[in-house]
Specification:
- By secondary structure, the chain is mainly α.
- 66% of the residues lie in helices and 0% in strands.
- The longest helix is centred in the first third of the chain and has 36 residues.
- The radius of gyration is 20 Å and the shape is globular.
- The chain starts with 34 loop residues before the first helix and ends with a helix.
């Protein structure tokens, strides 16, 4: 059965093909793996899970607030537009804004699925091919999980945003294997982790919280994969090559920051688009939220050695430089612990 009828806007308009020209690398040395990546590969194999059995899909969502999130999570909360809405209009907006955000998670996960398959082909080391293969399975499961949440429970979805589409296009069309890592493993996955965490930690609906907790358990490994690989590789590059990658990271971060203006939602529910966007851009609460989204990216960028004056200046202007010393390994351990707590509470 087609899912097109569940989309708030026609999804076909955002379908596209990315022309690619990159080499596929075969490697005949099978025992020169780096210990850190082999350990990550073992963990990736051990922690595979089935969305049909790990998650209790019998749970229902509240039609007025599907994930049970506080109203502060609606980016125009507190604005004159919000205050004029009736109770029913606020309920409709909650459903649409939550479906829109989850839809971008879904489309980003499909992007990660394609990018990681590309990494398996491109990357020169067998240990990285091994781990990337486990991530391909992870990403397929994430696409399945978010699609099921949206199509079965929300019965509402949104097409990919132009900013996410542009970023994926940039990542997939670049022939250099490390740019796929940088764009997907570090930047897109890093931002996703922070966004998932807001739902996992704030949602009153157990189904919505569990979906994000279990996906985060996987995503923490994915960011570690990018960090371990690029930390070994980037010291080998020239300063000019590192500068180019810093410029890409800066542009990508600005694109991702602008992902959360939600123009498509305001238009769909009949609200004044310019007024809503203006409020989101000026809101102190939203500035804090958009800054927090980079809490996983900034320390990883520093750790892999892309820490020149241009990127530090850009991050300072964005108000996110203070995240540079966040302990990402501790956050990953916490993500695993929280997922295990959800497992412990799950009926057996």
């Amino acid at each position: 059965m087609t899912t097109s009828r569940r989309y708030a806007m026609p999804p076909g308009e955002t379908a596209w093909e990315v022309p690619s020209a990159f080499g596929t690398v075969f490697r005949w040395e099978y025992e020169d793996g780096r210990a850190a990546l082999i350990n990550l590969y073992e963990k990736g194999k051990k922690l595979q899970w089935n969305t049909n059995t790990r998650i209790d899909w019998s749970q229902d969502l509240d039609p007025e607030n599907p994930q049970g999130l506080p109203d502060e999570s609606v980016s125009i909360f507190g604005s004159p537009v919000w205050e004029k809405l009736t109770r029913q209009e606020k309920a409709n907006l909650r459903r649409h804004i939550q479906a829109w955000q989850l839809s971008q998670f879904l489309h980003g996960e499909q992007g990660a699925l394609v990018c990681t398959a590309k990494i398996v082909q491109q990357v020169p080391n067998v240990d990285a091919k091994f781990y990337a293969a486990t991530q391909v399975m992870d990403e397929a499961r994430h696409v399945e999980t978010y699609a099921r949440l949206l199509h079965e429970k929300f019965e509402l979805a949104y097409p990919i945003t132009p900013t996410l589409k542009r970023l994926l296009d940039n990542v997939l069309s670049d022939s250099r294997w490390d740019m796929t890592y940088l764009g997907m493993q570090v930047l897109i996955e890093g931002l996703a982790l922070a966004a998932f965490a807001t739902i996992r930690d704030q949602a009153k609906n157990t189904l919505a919280a569990a979906v994000n907790a279990y996906v985060m358990q996987d995503e923490a490994r994915h960011v570690a994969f990018g960090r371990l690989t690029l930390r070994d590789y980037y010291p080998q590059l020239t300063q000019a090559e590192r500068d180019e990658r810093e410029e890409f990271a800066v542009e990508a971060c600005y694109l991702m920051r602008d992902r959360f203006l939600s123009e498509e939602v305001w238009e769909t529910v009949g609200l004044p688009v310019e007024e809503c966007v203006g409020y989101v851009e000026s809101s102190q609460l939203m500035r804090q939220f958009r800054s927090l989204l980079f809490s996983r990216i900034v320390p990883t960028i520093k750790d892999i050695g892309l820490w020149g004056p241009k990127i530090r200046r850009a991050y300072s202007n964005m108000g996110i430089l203070g995240f540079a010393d966040v302990d990402t390994e501790q956050l990953a351990r916490e993500d695993e612990r929280v997922a295990e707590e959800f497992d412990a509470r799950r009926p057996h």
